[in-house]
Amino acid sequence: MNESNLNIEEVVTLIIGCAIKVHKALGPGLLESAYKECLYYELLKAGLFVEKEKPMPLIYEEVKLDVGYRIDLLVERRLVIEIKSKEALNDIDLAQTLTYLKIGDFRLGLLINFNVTLLKNGLKRVVNRLEN
Q1: What is the percent of the chain with per-residue pLDDT over 90, rounded to a whole number?
Q2: 49 vs 54: CA distance, rounded Å
Q3: Which residue has the higher pLDDT, 64 or 50?
Q4: Residue 109 and residue 66: Cα distance in Å, rounded?
Q5: Is 1 domain-assigned?
Q6: Which H or E element spans position 123?
């Protein structure tokens, strides 16, 4: 399946809608892997191009290092989704998402914590301020 012709904000809106649908159906308290699989399914159903557990090598100078980084979901080859299911998001979660954005040269990510009563309280938009 090819990427859609949606702009990034339309993609974000679709992702959030799908995440809310999954959260309403499952509620908080499950493992990250359950939310990832269900969100992956919903995003595909919505017609988006989605890659699950996308490997991200680290490039240091001329060396490509496979250090085991994997993006939970990469949508439309440009938007990173990092999924959590924990009591609260912290600075490490944000740093991890930012690292994926920087390594992959992506501009935008969504950090989603499904272990909340209202999903809007578990959503964090993460922007990579690219240097030109």
Answers
A1: 81
A2: 13
A3: 50
A4: 22
A5: no
A6: strand 123-127
CA distances 127 to 73, 108, 118, Å, are 16, 5, 23
Give domain status of residue 2, yes or no: no
Q: Report which of residues 60 and 127 the model is more confident about.
A: 127
Residue found under tokens 């959590």: 84
Whether 3 maps to a domain, the answer reads: no
Domain assignment of residue 24, yes or no: yes
CATH number of the domain that 86 lies in?
3.40.1350
pLDDT in tens, 85-115: 999 999 999 999 999 999 899 999 999 999 9
Question: Does residue 132 carry a pLDDT above 50?
Answer: no
Listing DSSP states for 65-91 in one string gives E----EEEEEETTTEEEEEE-SSS--H
Domain span at 33: 8-127
Handedness of CA 10, 25, 53, 80 (dihedral sign): positive
